[in-house]
Amino acid sequence: MKTNDVILQTVTKVTLFIIILFSIHLFFAGHYYPGGGFIGGLMTSGAIVLLLLAFDIKTVKSILPIDYIKLTAIGLLFAIGTGAGALLFDMPFLTHAYTYVNMPLLGKTSLHTAVLFDTGVYLVVIGVTMTIIQTIGESE
Amino acid sequence: MAFQILLNFILAFVWMFLKTSYSPASFFVGYLLGLLIIYMFRRFFHTRFYLLRVVAVLNLLYIFLRELLLSNIAVLKVILRPKLNIRPAIFALPTELKEDWEITVLANLITLTPGTLVIDVSPDNKILYVHAMDVSDIDEAIQGIKNTFEKAIMEVSR
């Protein structure tokens, strides 16, 4: 019997955005507070899993037309790129640099190349988690 | 559209609460992040991504200001000319706009640009009667209004 999921779907439509915002908060909090790329990525993929639970795989694919395998590759490239970038400045592999910049909105902010590395981690975690879940979900 | 804006505001406030900093700057950062998330999930909504409509409104404003300037210059030329050889006319402008506010905006835009003036709207809201100060070609005038104002208004309400 097909049940009506209208309550689940409507609640998903609002909570999904709050969960993703919280995951971005966790991602940026990583340097000074608990959080970081791994937990942020897991929570983002958790939000997409909620979407998968409320709707079906086809709808989610039409809403988010992302190839998660490519996303994993892009994340790995981010991590290698920030590591290799240090070689250009005569530094050992994976040496990170940071600087303090006065941004127009954020005030005094420290820009750290570790954030780019974390972005790589974030994308790989989303990519791997979603690939695992979608591959299991698609097989009969 | 209203739902998307409301959601964006809620997300901005959630961001402020997460950061426990209640400054306008953190509201703005939260608003931008919310905008980004809503853009990512834009296919999720039945209506268009709402920023497109904001852009359409700004475009309508730009068209209005441009036409206002250009046609004021045109009227100035007519006034300063020693001989008055203008050809006034009243013509019917068929419109495709349906909503009350769309017709009102179109009529106000036509009236506020000098040289043309909306006299009356037909009872079935399909035809606008426009008085023009100097028309050499009526079809050209109709097409001019249709291509600029009507198109821009449709872009907003679509």
UniProtKB/TrEMBL annotation, chain A:
Transmembrane segments: 12-32, 38-56, 68-89, 109-133
Keyword terms, alphabetized: Cell membrane, Membrane, Transmembrane, Transmembrane helix
Topology with respect to the bilayer: Multi-pass membrane protein
A cellular component annotation (GO) from this entry: plasma membrane
Domain (Na+/H+ antiporter MnhB subunit-related protein) ranges: 7-131
UniProt entry tagged with the keyword Coiled coil: no
Matches recorded under Pfam families: MnhB
Subcellular location: Cell membrane
Similarity annotation: Belongs to the CPA3 antiporters (TC 2.A.63) subunit B family.
Protein's UniProt name: Na(+)/H(+) antiporter subunit B
From TrEMBL, chain B:
Transmembrane segments: 28-45
GO terms assigned for molecular function: antiporter activity; monoatomic cation transmembrane transporter activity
Localization of this protein: Cell membrane
Entry membrane topology: Multi-pass membrane protein
One cellular component (GO) term of this entry: plasma membrane
Family that this chain belongs to: Belongs to the CPA3 antiporters (TC 2.A.63) subunit E family.
Protein name: Na+/H+ antiporter subunit E
Species of origin: Mesobacillus subterraneus
